[in-house]
Backbone:
C-alpha cells in the first residue's frame, strides 16, 4: 500500500459524501467495523480524517486504547471503485456544541444533526497508507 | 454485540447482494479493510460467510496468519441500515474451477466471473458476533 500523502484524484474522491466503514480494534485485537460519516481535510500537507462518535459507543474506548483504524470509502454509484486507508487517531476531543457532527450532517444530509442531546466526541486521524480500486486504482 | 446465530431478518438482509467491506489484520495487528463480495449461508445452524480472493492478494496471507475478520454489509438504498459481523476464518481452500467466484459473480452481477486466468482461493468464515443499525437494529 502506498504511503500518504494522497494523490489529487483520491482527495477529490474523498471529498464526496461517500459511504464509509471504519474498523477499530477491541481489547484483544479483534477487528470490528461499522458504517460511518467522515470528512477528509488536508492540514499542513497531511491527509486528515474527521470522525465523530456518540460518546456512549464502544468504539470511542477502542480508539482511546489503540489508535490504529482502517477506513474504506465506497463510490455510491459503483462500489467497485473504493479507497482504503490505514490511519491513526491523533486525538479524541469533546464536541460540546455539536459543531463537528453538524459539519458532517451538512455534508451528508444538508441539515444539522437531529439529536441535540447525546454527548459526542470527534476523532482526528492521520492517513498513513492508502489503496485504491476501480477508478481510484493506485 | 449479540452472539450468533443471526435472527431471520438479518439473514434475509444478508441474502441480498449488498456492498460489503472486509477487514483483515496485518502482521503487527494493524487493521486494513477492502470492499468485497460475500455470500451468507447457514450450515448446521451456524452462520457462515463465503469470501473469495485472488491468490496474489495480501489479505490471503493475513487470514492464514490471523483468522479474525470484521465485515460490514451496507444497504444499497440507505447505508444507514447496515450489519456488522465479527467472524473467524475456518479454512482457506483453492477454487481451481472458479466455482465459488462464479457463484459470487452470479449473485452480484448475474454472470460468470470474467477473469478465468488468475488463481483464486475461497475462505469460509463462521460468524461469532453481530451488530445491526437502522432497519437492522439489534
Residues:
Amino acid at each position: 500500500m502506498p504511503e500518504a500523502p494522497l494523490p489529487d484524484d483520491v482527495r477529490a474522491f474523498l471529498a464526496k459524501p461517500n459511504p464509509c466503514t471504519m474498523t477499530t480494534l477491541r481489547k484483544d485485537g479483534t477487528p470490528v467495523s461499522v458504517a460511518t460519516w467522515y470528512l477528509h481535510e488536508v492540514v499542513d500537507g497531511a491527509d486528515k480524517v474527521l470522525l465523530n462518535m456518540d460518546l456512549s459507543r464502544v468504539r470511542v474506548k477502542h480508539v482511546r486504547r489503540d489508535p490504529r483504524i482502517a477506513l474504506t470509502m465506497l463510490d455510491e454509484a459503483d462500489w467497485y471503485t473504493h479507497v482504503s486507508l490505514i490511519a491513526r487517531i491523533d486525538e479524541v476531543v469533546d464536541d460540546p456544541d455539536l459543531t463537528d457532527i453538524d459539519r458532517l450532517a451538512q455534508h451528508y444530509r444538508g441539515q444539522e444533526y437531529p439529536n441535540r442531546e447525546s454527548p459526542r466526541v470527534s476523532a482526528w486521524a492521520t492517513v498513513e497508507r492508502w489503496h485504491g480500486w476501480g477508478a481510484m486504482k493506485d
